[in-house]
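Duplicate of #3305? Posting structure anyway:
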């Protein structure tokens, strides 16, 4: 009887941890990529340098910020996206800012260049929610 109780508790803990990680992935996706409305800085370079630092992404190769409402991103995973290689590609265009680490940046002073674009985006979805940004086309 004790073995069955231990087994049941182990299963419940594992299930809770797995479900928690899925929710965190969506939350992490929003924290990493969503900025709507776009934060107002003087230019895309300043925008990228400040946003990468504020989102604790500083010194990474790059990141893309999406300037859309959250529901539009969720819709890609459900009704307004098409499947390609197991990922969803939006059918509509999104305003985005692409931040890329500049050559010559070092760990003490990471500088980014930024570029505003309007593109379709491709994301990985889990349970109807975007969890990973793949690319823009």
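Output from current build:
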């Amino acid at each position: 009887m004790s073995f069955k109780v231990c087994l049941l508790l182990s299963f419940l803990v594992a299930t809770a941890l797995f479900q928690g990680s899925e929710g965190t992935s969506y939350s992490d996706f929003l924290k990493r990529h969503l900025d709507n409305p776009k934060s107002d800085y003087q230019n895309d370079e300043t925008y990228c340098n400040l946003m990468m630092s504020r989102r604790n992404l500083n010194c990474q190769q790059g990141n893309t910020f999406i300037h859309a409402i959250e529901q539009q991103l969720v819709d890609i995973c459900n009704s307004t996206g098409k499947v390609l290689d197991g990922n969803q590609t939006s059918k509509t265009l999104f305003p985005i800012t692409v931040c890329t680490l500049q050559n010559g940046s070092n760990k003490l002073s990471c500088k980014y260049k930024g570029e505003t674009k309007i593109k379709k985006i491709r994301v990985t979805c889990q349970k109807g929610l975007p969890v990973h940004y793949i690319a823009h086309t």
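Confirmed duplicate; merging threads. The beta strands are 62-66, 81-84, 87-90, 94-101, 112-119, 121-126, 129-136. Helices lie at 2-33, 44-54, 70-78.
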